[in-house]
Amino acid sequence: ASLQQAFQQAQRGVDAINASSDFRFDTYVKASNTNNNAWFGSALALSGNTVVIGAPGEASSATGINGNQKDTSAPNSGAVYVFVRDATGWSQQAYIKASNTDAGDLFGRFGSSSVALDGDTLVVGSPAEASSARGVNGDQTDNSAPYAGAVYVFVRNGTTWSQQAYIKASNTDS
Length: 174
Known about the structure:
Layout: H1 3-19, E1 43-47, E2 50-55, E3 79-86, E4 89-96, E5 115-118, E6 121-126, E7 135-136, E8 150-157, E9 160-168
Antiparallel strand pairs: 1-2, 2-3, 3-4, 5-6, 6-8, 7-9, 8-9
């Protein structure tokens, strides 16, 4: 199909949605530590009544779950925010950072492939993370491989999130 045909097909889909009364504005959410250039909303994942929102430009040097959001000493380290919906609406459940936060890591970076959520399992990419570790749960403190990247796996038990794994390529080179 040509680009024009693809556009026309997409427009027909939009028109069908606009004609439907099934869609309505639900709520407006913001990061709990709103700052300039955080890029909140640049990555999204939805599963059931949970949405995860990436903010790769977020600047806190906090690590792990629900750390100090007021510290802005690590520009572009990134964060993800977990919101849940119940009978009263949406609320923030967690503020999640990499376990080895560094400036420039871009945790929760742009695009749908940067955050994935399936039930109680969350996967977050950090494409600029710099450890030369290899495999699963290696040495996170080594920053000798700029832009090597990493993936972090988190799990939720009830309302509590925890990091399950830190994953690197098997051929990370410094």
